[in-house]
Amino acid sequence: MKIPGPDHPITITPAGRRWRARYQGHVIADTGDALVLQEASYPPVIYFPREDVSMAFLARTAHATHCPYKGDAAYYTLQMDGHFAENAIWTYEEPYPAMAEIAGRLAFYTNKVEVYAPDDAETVIPQPTEAADVETTPSVDDVVLHTDSGSGASQREHWPANVSMPREDGGSR
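The structure corresponding to this sequence follows.
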């Protein structure tokens, strides 16, 4: 076990903003409680709390690695819409004491899963299937923000109704 120091610094800080992970057009992680791990000269890594990740799409694998500073990492493969991202997610379930803050959190390989900080000025709009869908397809970010925040209420105002009256047969179109 090695301890981070001046020759190999590692810092863990609260992200201070919302972070998401998206795979195959689906937001699979969304949190306001991310941690940023900055290790030496490597790119920063965002660690998500497990409870803010859609674990139903992940399958634990036998793959494992060892870091002399963090400990033993376990891996998950992500499967969605018939696509696989093998060993795309890792976790340190019992990291060394200096890295205790990341225990049980999940991180994503950014060459396999898009990890991003959404903001209102830059929403990501999925590619529509028809030209007419451009105006009516809400962005992935808008859909997520209209879901329950855990308080029992939407995170934003409700959208206006897309029909004024149901059809006589009970349908809405």
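Residues 120-135 have pLDDT under 50 and may be disordered.
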